[in-house]
Amino acid sequence: MSITGSGRGQPLLDDQIEPFLQHLRDDGYAERTIRKKRTIARAFARWAKRKGIATIDLNDGHVDAFVRRLPRGEKPRLKFELAAVRLFLGYLRATAGVQCPAPQAPASSTASLLQQYEHHLRNNRGLAENSLRVYLPLIRTFLASKLAGSSFPQSLKALTIRDFVIAQTRNRSAEYVRLLATALRSFFRFLFLSGHVPVDLSPAVPRVCKYRQSTPPAFLAPEQVSSALAAMDRSTPRGRRDYAILLLLARLGLRAGEIVSLELDDVCWRTAEVIVCGKGRTVERLPLLRDIGEALAAYLRKDRGVSKSRRIFLRMWAPRIGLTGPAAVGHIVRLALARAGIRRSGRGAAHLFRHGLATRMIRQGASLPEIAEVLRHRSQMTTSGYTQVAFEALREVAQPWPTRGGAR
User: Fold this and answer.
1) pLDDT tens, 105-134?
2) Which of 56, 98, 157, 366 has a CA positioned 20 to 30 A from the CA of residue 343?
3) Tens digit of pLDDT for each residue in 29-73?
4) How far is the CA of 92 from the CAs of 14, 33, 54, 60, 103, in angstroms?
5) SS3 of 276, please?
6) Is 255 a catalytic residue?
7) 3-95 sits in which CATH class?
């Protein structure tokens, strides 16, 4: 009996290799890759047996020790083996009872506050993950400043908060300072509501002016949208997937994050609707237009394949899971525009389609409430920015300038 199976009821490491490889097949890994990982998993099992390490006791330190046996000059091989063994250990933790590392206690009171604040945002406020990625780094920067001393947060004063915000304005964009002020107000309200401070200090955070945009948002013209769609190679699995994504952007004006979050159950084929989870966890039902439905059906039937993930759009490479985030959609859009020879302007490649839809609607005579309804804006102030693209339409209704003797 091998040492890796010492102890009644403990799994043998050798016996876990084939189930692990089958798990990789289910996740869409190629057989060539699986053969390489089989070799590494077997080497790891032999190494653990020689060291007398039971399967149940394996941890990340053992993974690092196993990889350190390789010569330092073989970096590509070292990187591949490290990834393979970590994947194997993750499988063992999920199926064979191998213990995950115990969570470390917060290193300080400020670290504990950050964890509590994150829990507050996620569970009490219901913020989306994208919002958490904005708020938490800003508050982490604040907690790392000199303000967060030994007597924090009881030592907080309105004047020191104001000075901190003003100091952060140096060499920073107005948008960064505005987001910092918003995050700080949220954090100080949390401190007050949770009883960490006796007074709500959120009013002490200075207001940051946000001027209305003087230029219309960057957008794609109708002919550019058509060129981008026509440039997609729909003879390949990637092309069919990306074509369906571009249609959702162009026809329904979806945000990149909304496309990433779409799941199989969100498409109601019988009623021709798409259920979209938008900002603020709102749920909207949008029409499943014919061309979108055909593109989705082609991708789902031919290319998506079987996956444990319920997301509609999956990665092309193993593991076959959902797209990692909005940036993945942005990358798809940038490649599509480059393929069509379109030079984009402004940030947010995926939003160019959304802005293009709004611009086309307003030029065709749609009202602001109608555009706000289609784009699911919570405030018509957001929609009003598109009025700047209708200058030519305004010329047609402008009255002639009066002159001596009457208008000419």
Assistant:
1) 444 577 788 889 999 998 888 887 778 888
2) 366
3) 889 999 999 999 999 999 999 989 888 888 888 988 898 887 766
4) 12, 19, 12, 12, 18
5) strand
6) yes
7) mainly alpha
Q: Does domain 222-393 have CATH number 2.60.40.1180?
A: no
From 23, 255, 304, 355, active-site residue: 255
Q: Does residue 91 have an active-site annotation?
A: no
Is 146 noted as a catalytic residue in this protein? no
Query: What is the model's pTM?
Result: 0.72
Query: Do residues 386 and 371 make contact, with C-beta atoms less than 8 angstroms apart?
Result: yes
- 106 Cβ partners below 8 Å, 6+ apart? 112, 115
- Told to judge if 285 belongs to the known catalytic residues of this protein, a careful annotator would answer no
Strands of 273-277's sheet, edge to edge? 267-268, 273-277, 283-287
* The one catalytic residue among 91, 279, 304, 315: 279
Burial pattern 106-116, b for ≥16 Cβ within 10 A else e, equals eeeebeebbee
- Which of 240, 241, 251, 351 is catalytic? The answer is 351
